[in-house]
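Take a look at the protein record below and flag anything odd:
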Amino acid sequence: MSTEQPGMQQQIISKAMKDDAFRQRLLSNPRETLEREMGMTLPQGVTFQVYEDTPSVIHLVLPMQPQTGEPVELSDADLEVAVGGDFNTPRCAVELTAGGCP
């Protein structure tokens, strides 16, 4: 299982929003936390970084560019992964900084 599986990022975010201890472990040691607590097998040689937005700092993650230099059309599944599988996530992220969203 990888974080690219549709819905997996949303599951991780949801758990981190409900479980502060998990959130702190995820921030301090993402690879170990994802593998041990989410049952994920992560590729070796890939670094996982987790950042937490604050009222004054918002992170935007851009997908990597294709290495061939050719434009690539994303599948529907790839598009869902790119937006976290939930079109309401950006709205909710903004509301979270203002104390909204469950």
Remarks:
- The mean pLDDT is 79.
- The helical segments are 8-18, 20-28, 30-38, 76-82, 89-97.
- The first helix runs from residue 8 to 18.
